[in-house]
Write a structure and sequence with these properties.
- The structure is a single chain.
- By secondary structure, this protein is an all-beta fold.
- It has a 3-stranded antiparallel sheet, with no helix packed on it. A 3-stranded antiparallel sheet has the order 3-2-5, with no helix packed on it.
């Protein structure tokens, strides 16, 4: 069986969303937030996550990026589920 190459681009995340979270125009990640970006290298639209809990991601079909700007920089765990979600504790 031949291997298949996957070409993921920012355009793959044009309809990406996080249930209950509004996206913002590209800006620096606010202090106390963990930010998800729809493009690599902190580009595209930004979603700022401030609350601990579980988020449901929708239509994230390509590569994105995460920046953690929380106090004391705890590491937000990211897990793959069906549907995809960001697990927060």
């Amino acid at each position: 069986m031949a291997s298949q190459q996957v070409d993921a681009r920012a355009a793959d995340n044009l309809n990406a969303g996080i249930v209950g979270v509004s996206s913002q125009a590209l800006s620096p990640c606010p202090c106390t937030a963990a930010c998800l970006y729809t493009d690599t290298f902190f580009g595209g639209r930004m979603f700022g996550l401030y609350q601990c809990g579980r988020y449901t991601l929708t239509n994230w079909d390509g590569w994105g990026s995460v920046y953690n700007n929380q106090t004391r920089h705890p590491r937000p765990p990211v897990c793959r589920t069906d549907p995809p979600s960001l697990d927060r504790e």
